[in-house]
Amino acid sequence: MSTRHHLQPISAVILLLVLAISPSPSHSSTHNHEQVNLESNPISRFQNYLRINTAHPTPDYAAAVNYLTAFAATIPTLQTRTLYLTTPDKPLLLITWPGSNPSLPAVLFNSHLDSVPAEPSKWLHDPFAAHLSDDGKIYARGAQDDKCTGMQYLEAIKELKSNLDYTPLRTLHISYVPDEEVGGLDGMAKFVESKEFKELNIGFVLDEGQASVNDEFRVFYADRSPWKLVIKSAGVPGHGSRMYDNSAMENLMKSVEVIMKFRENSFDLVKAGQAANSEVISVNPVYMKAGIPSPSGFVMNMQPSEVEAGFDIRLPPTAEPEFMMRRIAEEWAPAWRNMTYQITEQGSLRDYLGRPLLTATNESNPWWSVFKQAITAAGGKLAKPEILSSTTDARFMRQMGIPTLGFSPMKNTPILLHDHNELLESSVYLEGIKVYEHIIRLLSSFDGASVSEGR
Ligand SMILES: [Zn+2]
């Protein structure tokens, strides 16, 4: 029972409409509060959202919130609130669709307002013009990550409410948070700690996922946690011509050898197909600081007394944090080799009850079953659930023990997040709205009793 049979013609009609409009790259922006431009079709509305530059280091959050608020105002019964949990330049927009039984745990759909920067000279089209090519591709920073989902949530609700007069049983919330791309500390991290969040009584969250290059949708049940490790060694300085034991450099190089061997073992598992990239502990050297500077570079006949190196480590939620700590202390930076270390960032691997930071993707989690049914109802196929290699805001909800899946309905799409020429096919975008209609319908009408058990 596929909905795609009637979907394709609709997409084609909208695409023709859009092509007839032929937007120019110099399209007026929506930055001005008096000029929120809500055109009458989903593609134009998506383009207008993409044209609001929310790239770091100077994201225009106010314009984005203003635009989304104006769009939400066109949909009956939606309530909007802007929260300022840190500074006035970092708003968090919360849109609520009240359910008929507000005592049931609510469902949250999250997306972030910000994006990573773009280098316009490396792009085929201006990354903030949201250019629509003749073959239906929308080029824009944020097209995949993750302004698509942010707008699709609202478009799906618009369709369900305005055209089908659907009323949810459970209350539905959409959050638009700042600063995901810079760690989320002034965004989702603050939100989940707030009394406003607790009052929402969230039972299940959908957050961003990633594009799939084939016909199956990808879904993520965990993120890897980042640890940032700095190791230092000290030693007696000496003439460059002398060989002696325990120089700072020798001790650091021994550690680097041990760490690179560990990296090789992890990578071998991936290369042999025994584990996905995101299922192993990865470690990569990211900087080394050593040597005594001279006007022409470095002093060449002196062995330095202090050296330092930095490593980016990513751990899947199945890793044992205590074991990793011991490995670092005893093998990677042992005091007996005159080494010290600092873990400057240590992402959690456990939730507040000490359970691995992951969401179950089996029958023990009733939300998972409902989500899966919705994808089937939308005529879609799900790939095997994955751990995300990197990190998203989903970790903050999982930390609170709330089941959270990462999902962005983009199939047959190259993975271009954070890349030059980030793009999304307009037909894929429109199909995603249909997928969310099914998801919202099933999740919001789900009346399971023991939903607090699922995680
Ligand atoms: Zn993202």
Automatic annotation (TrEMBL):
<dbReference type="Pfam" id="PF01546">
    <property type="entry name" value="Peptidase_M20"/>
</dbReference>
<dbReference type="InterPro" id="IPR002933">
    <property type="entry name" value="Peptidase_M20"/>
</dbReference>
<dbReference type="InterPro" id="IPR052083">
    <property type="entry name" value="Aminoacylase-1_M20A"/>
</dbReference>
<keyword id="KW-0732">Signal</keyword>
<dbReference type="InterPro" id="IPR010159">
    <property type="entry name" value="N-acyl_aa_amidohydrolase"/>
</dbReference>
<protein>
    <recommendedName>
        <fullName>N-acyl-L-amino-acid amidohydrolase</fullName>
    </recommendedName>
</protein>
<feature type="signal peptide">
    <location>
        <begin position="1"/>
        <end position="28"/>
    </location>
</feature>
<dbReference type="InterPro" id="IPR036264">
    <property type="entry name" value="Bact_exopeptidase_dim_dom"/>
</dbReference>
